[in-house]
Amino acid sequence: MNEQVPVTQDAAIPAAKPVKAMPDAQIVKSVKHWTDRLFSFRVTRPASLRFRSGEFVMIGLMGDPDPKTGKQKPLLRAYSIASPSWDEELEFYSIKVQDGPLTSKLQHIQPGDELILRPKPVGTLVHDALLPGKRVYFFATGTGIAPFASLIRDPETYEKFDEVILTHTCREVAELEYGRQLVESLEEDPLIGEMIEGKLKYYPTTTREESPVMGRITEHLKSGELFERLGVPPLNPETDRAMICGSMGLNKDITAILEESGMREGANSEPKEFVVEKAFVG
Ligand SMILES: Cc1cc2nc3c(=O)[nH]c(=O)nc-3n(C[C@H](O)[C@H](O)[C@H](O)COP(=O)(O)OP(=O)(O)OC[C@H]3O[C@@H](n4cnc5c(N)ncnc54)[C@H](O)[C@@H]3O)c2cc1C
After folding, report:
1. Listed residues 97, 122, 147: the one ending a domain
2. Which residue is closest in CA terms to ligand 1's atom 53?
3. What is the percent of the chain where pLDDT is above 70?
4. How does DSSP assign 199-256, residue by residue?
5. Are 135 and 161 in contact (CB under 8 A)?
6. 191: confidence class by pLDDT, cuts 50, 70, 90
7. Each residue's pLDDT tens digit, 19-72
8. Where is each FAD-binding FR-type domain found (predicted)?
9. Which of residues 122, 141, 156 is at a domain's end?
10. Within a domain: residue 237?
11. Mean pLDDT highest for which of 14-18, 23-27, 206-210, 278-282?
């Protein structure tokens, strides 16, 4: 196994806060780089912002000035809130797309910088969109773990379900590190630790770099390897619920597997056995 240590840079919070100049501006409090393609950051939370764990908001920066008029427009993208609804700050987990309009700039933010955040949370990966059940699966690939980073920190998740299974699939081991450290920190957390004990099961897999459990999650579901390793029965629409957040392809493939087992896709207005959200468009 490649014992690759992720590149991390913790940046401290500066003493002086700049005056907010942009509309809906929040202040960046900390930034952590996990790999050359992934980073997370925390920002101030607008006092009026209420959201349900698992929802997303539009965030961004001011775009470049128009060459003719000199005017700047906000450049906004959808981002899942990775922190739980009780947290006093907001956390985000982001990709760095080298030529991406937003993330080519966003990856350079520093504590004290301003970030635009439209305080209108929405999304389908919420408890309200699922019928009551015994066990909930959170299926994530890449940055698709962000909404689940929120949900696994929310006490409601453990009040509603006896078992919480988080699967996270990435190409390389270092790309799993954000989720791995989060799960580990929860186990040691004096408050949440007790609540999740014996309930939260973490199932990381890699598709390219060697790791203890390798392969696409769809293959692990089809072969039954996932159920065997976790010691749980196969999917059952009576007891099991699921949320999916990954690429369009993954979402489609897992949806097909869940539907084959008799589970139905729900929505906020019509809770059923599972819900799906794209981790990105493309
Ligand atoms: C509901 C929703 C929630 C989202 N939540 C997050 C989130 O929590 N974290 C996050 O990093 N992104 C998230 N995204 C994607 C995000 O909105 C942007 O696409 C991303 O920040 C890149 O912005 P960009 O302007 O740099 O490039 P874009 O022009 O938006 O994207 C360029 C290309 O990069 C690829 N890409 C974009 N985002 C990702 C990604 N996350 N992982 C892998 N490839 C990607 C796609 O192929 C895309 O066509 C979410 C998207 C949706 C629809």
Report:
1. 122
2. 280
3. 92
4. TEEEEEEESSS--SSBS-HHHHHHHSHHHHHHT-PSP-TTTEEEEEEE-HHHHHHHHH
5. yes
6. confident
7. 555 679 999 999 999 999 999 999 999 999 999 999 999 999 999 888 999 999
8. 21-128
9. 122
10. yes
11. 206-210
Q: Note down the domain range covering 167.
A: 127-278
Is 158 found in the same domain as 92? Answer: no
pLDDT for 8 equals 47
Number of domains, the chain: 2
272 belongs to a structural domain: yes
CB 276 within 8 A of CB 147: no
144 Cα: distance to centroid of ligand 1 (angstroms): 10
Q: Same domain for 254 and 142?
A: yes
Residues with CB under 6 A from ligand 1: 56, 77-80, 93-95, 97, 100-104, 142-143, 146, 277-282
Within 10 A of 38 (CB to CB), how many other CB atoms are there? 22
Give how far the C-alpha of residue 37 lies from the chain's centroid of Cα atoms, to the nearest Å.
15
Same structural domain, 117 and 62 = yes
The reported pTM is: 0.92
